[in-house]
Fold this protein.
Amino acid sequence: MGKKIGVFVCHCGTNISATVDVEKVAEETKKNNPGVAYTTTYKYMCSDPGQKLLRDKIKEEGLTGVVVAACSPKMHEHTFRNAAVKTGLNPYHVEISNIREQCSWVHPDIPTGTDKSIDLVRMMTEKTRKDKSLTAIKVPVTKRALVIGGGIAGIQAALDIADGGQEVVMVEREASIGGHMAQLSETFPTLDCSQCIMTPKMVEAAQHDNITMYTWSEIESITGYLGNFDVKIRKKARSVDLDLCTGCSSCWQVCPCKKIKSEFDMGIGNRTAIYIPFPQAIPSKPVIDRENCILFKDARKKNIKPNDSKVCRKCIDACPIAPVKAIDYNQEDEIVDVKIGAIIVATGFRELEDGLYGEYGGGKYEDVITGLQFERLASASGPTEGKIKRPSDGKEPEIVVFIQCVGSRDPAKGCSYCSKTCCMYTAKHTMLYKHKVHDGHAFVFYIDIRCAGKGYEEFSQRAIEEEGATYLRGRVSRVYKKGEKLIVLGADTLTGSVVEIEADMVVLASAMKAQDDAEQFAQKLSIQYDKDKFFSEMHPKLKPVESSSAGIFLAGTCQGPKDIPETVAQAGAAASKVLALLSSDELEREPVVARVDRQLPPVFSTCIGCFYCQKVCPYSAIESEDIKARDGSVIKTVARVNEGLCQGCGLCAATCRSKSVELEGFNDEQIYAEINALEFN
Amino acid sequence: MKIKITTKELKSDFAEEVKKRSGIDVKKCYQCGKCTAGCPVAYEMDYMPNQIIRFVQLGLKREALTSRTIWLCASCITCTTRCPKEVKIAELMDVLREMSLEEGLANPLEKNITTFHEAFLNSVKKHGRISEIGMIQEYKMKRPKTALQDLLVGPQMLSKGKLSFLPHDIKGKDAVKKIFEKCK
Amino acid sequence: MQIEERKKIGYYPGCAITMGSSSEEYGTSVLRVSEEIGPELEEIHDWNCCGASSAHATNHKLSTALSIRNISLAEQSGYKEILAPCPMCSQRLIISQKDVADDEELKKDVADAIEMPCDGDVKIINYLELIKNYCMDEIAEKKKKTPKDLKIASYYGCLLLRPPKVLKFDDPENPTSMEEIVEATGATSVDWELKTNCCGGGFTLSRTDVVLKLTNDILECAADAGADAIAVACPMCHANLDMRQKKIGKEYKRKYDIPIVYISELIGLALDLGPISLGLNKHFIDTKSVVNAFE
């Protein structure tokens, strides 16, 4: 018996019916198509009554196939297939004919739109006649999450997942977790001490039963798919045994290399070669900077093993642990293998380097600093113990000029977006400065003030009204040195004047940029990124934490500039997605995957084993399978699609020279049925 | 500066006209003021460079073309170099000057500058190259208040041989004259 | 060492540096130096004024046509490169060449006005480019004198560097080509802040007050940085800094005594070519101190 197809043509309000005569479409479809048992039109098929109509008619008319002529399948294919399931009809006999985006919205005259719709519906009914029932593919789920990045986003996400009862592995490439938030002095709009609010979370994460933390580690590789990732973590050699070390600090106190520029202090403070990045570091156990440590430099020069160098052994000598010291110069990188079910990427941002603007000195003026460098000056645990001092001579600056939008909103310099946080943190900086230097003058050059968050506008006004910061509207064209001072040439467009200020220090509100290696990292994970190298969310409004790859989620500034409240919220959202994923033992995947045919012996498969399909597959979903005889000898090696990895793109089907691969739900028979329906009308 | 902007100005096609002549789209300017901040002559101008662009954006043709600013622009091109939206501000000044002259709106307070350009180009038209003495003579005649300026410099230049009395006419001076005719 | 093959480059002096003009010492020294270390320069026959500021400030078509005539003349004579030591000229030539390439309408109008084809593919270079591309080795080899303790501030002005997207020469905020050449002569480069600032250029007659202010800023900065002399590659900058220096001093109550030397003169001194043959006697501010430094 042939198929009994029901065709439901939607008005979509007036979206379709304004330019397509939907009644006529239904009429003509009934007339000329064998297999079409029932047609009707409805105002809003996707509404509850619309779906009820669908379900009722399937039952009443005994329909074995359905075509809904409506909007794009991306909108409601899911809806209508679910409706069919409720009636017992296999959902893969339900097809959508897109007569909106591909017809009514692009053809303004009714006759054209109607004729085209009739064709489109007929094509789909012909395809439906060839539809086969398909069952969702079930994949197992590893109940463990991976969080890449140990800043506030990663920490929050890990805590949320761990509190939700699942295991988490955290990987952070610096020696301590904390990220950029740990570098801040006080946070807006409350002026909470950043580390004071953060360290409790850091400690919780470090001590949580469900969290395994790897610091000074990086992701080596990720393979696999949703629910079944294989992750290799490279634990870089710390030169310190984490199990033995107690963090007593004896070693870094005696290290003779004291003038290495501290990364945590953004270059305005120094550290030693064996170091912890900051006093509240977690773990509070050091690493050795092998690039700059004189022992390691010596070993490299002489081409000997590090432990054989005798140039300096102050740290290991000072180490009180016995019988085995906690310091191990010969320690090597270690690769750890973990199985993971879901991944959250929380790799953060980098601040724009201060050398980009030649007109601001190109990085050569010590007293022209970036926002994060100012944070380090203002921070009580920073290189100046919280005193605002000029990096050049240590004097207290009487006049500080803050320049907003440095590197942001500047397409000429390759960065057209707004970094979102700078208006707020600049206002904060003026306050911190005035709190510490009561008679100081703070001048801010701005183009706009963007304070959209809760309490933000009031905070920004407070900087002006209560703290006395002077805001000048205009960009700065040039900063140069004159004697001890920095001459700032700016403008105030509100009075229509040029402004020249003799400043003691200039703070650049530098743009929030994607990490230097964001592009390579995204490629390693096979996730999409945008023109600015921030990782792309699946939908800017409705899917803000999903990456383009199933099972990989995004949190924090790696997805785009944002402040701490948004980061924490996004981290929670990503964690909830992960918890949902890990809550089932099995996941269902759409069965629209490719399949290499299998035949009876002696053919076994029409596949000739050329593996062109493997070469073109973007998801590494083609594997090879040896077809063996009973004695174990290999008869032929053919391709096999890994259903878990396959995303149903169809490239293999298009490439296969022997027509051995087809896409379920879009096989050759179905596609040709559509084409023929158009061709031979 | 008192200006009232009405729908008439806002609906004008001044910006379109400017775009057609120069290719410059002033819509891109977000009035950040960096051009003004770096302009070496802004301190002498009646309107700041960013304000001139604002005039074009809002259809204030008269204000733009009668300003002293466009004449005081030294074409140092610092503004164009640093503009974050890549608006060619210095090149825009060229177009506004040309339009100002066409419509007879050049600000009389900067007559020294407009007269200098006139004298310079007259000399080129006549000889094909600048005759410095000839140009200076025409300039000082038309701007008698400048007659005593640089009085001592002249003889000094002459004594060093850096000022020739006779113009160097080029052979192709008629060709040059023709260029002037055709480019009116 | 002999220079085997001299490349002939079209020489476009422009009105300011040609013989008998107000900045002729630039032309004199450029030619004298090229005699010594090449490359071979040949004056473009019957060149006309490029129009300088006055043309581009008042009539775009005229300015383009005047410049393109010279490029077409050069092309017809078979030159592949034009040297225009005056940055006003080199800038106008390069900009006009680009404008005509980008605008078919303009190209037609200009071709009609100059009655010559204007597809000129000739490369226009400034003097610093010439030295860097062709003469650095020659200077190193043929250098005869090394100055003792001569601190030079390299002053670029506007037109060598801007607009950077069109001229594509050196870094517009922190250029180094002139410093490299200065160092090649054996003098020491001084680091100073206003090396790309505008001197006021063509306002020297019509708005002398503006020129005095801008040049005072420049002189003050160079003097405070410890410069013994300022090197320039532009006749307008030279005139403003040299000819007007006494007046600037009077106006701003500071006695400067800073010789302004063309980079070509500096190279000439290093090659031990006679100061008079380089035009060093034609300056307003005595250049004795610079000449003596090379003794």
